[in-house]
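ok trying again, last paste got cut off:
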Amino acid sequence: MGFAPAANAQLNFVYETNANPALVGTAYTGGIFKLKYNNFDMGSVYGVAPGTYGTTNDPATGTGQLNALAQSAPIGSIYGPEDSWGIGRVTSIEDGFGNTIWSQAGKGQEVTVMFYGSQDFFLTETATSQVTSSAGLHVDLYFQTVGGLGYTAYNPSLGSGGRTALNQYTTVTDGTLLLSTVSTAGFLYAPGVQGGTATEFTSTFAPGTGGLGATYLNVTGGSMAANFNTNSITSAFDGSIRADLFAQFTTRTDDTVANWLVSSDDPVRGLFVAVPEPSTYGLIAAGGLLGLVAFRRMRARAQAV
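nice, full thing came through this time. structure:
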């Protein structure tokens, strides 16, 4: 996917720890990595009250039909139609062997994430949970130098009150745009399964417990866009459809702050390709990038239902 250039900002992917001490301080040259992050999320919960579901509209299709259902809309979604939004922060990144190649503490850099704009268009539900198919998700990553001029430390305790625009949140979007991405159809479900190939983002949620979610993303901009606009992931349903990134997460309701609906601490995995300058590498994901094997297992389970 094409993208517009942005101001220069990069993360230093240099080993902070390694089973081979000789590699500490050397550049990470690419391969599998694990990204650790924490995020907080708001989302639509369908039912007369949260957790109170019926089956009259199961499944419900189309944004109009879903919008007409009894529901608790996402708190803070006052800037346009939306069924999910939230924020996050990356804490560390490891290579495939568990060696740290980036951390906020070790590099003095902060990477924050804002996601927004997703709209549900397909809903299935049981007595205790809901599964939605959505489209229009945006995931943006921002970069700041800790302690630098204008630095604002990430603060999720502001809750919905920290949101100042559709794509703006105090202490999250104050830095340089590192990466902007959009969700992509054609990957998550086969035709006739849940929301089908039109699904760009899928989420399973059980009030009082949490749930799962997944999306494929294409890079559209940011200072590190050229490093990740690879079109390296091919749809299993249509070989002409490509994506740059894959994100998956597990949410819970027992560890939130302020008025957030759910939170997540998932470690996520992906494949990193080195940039031309050997000492600087970009960050993949929003809300997180995972190996394709994990997702194929999840999709197989979903299609078997």
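cool. The longest strand covers residues 109-125. The first helix runs from residue 63 to 68.
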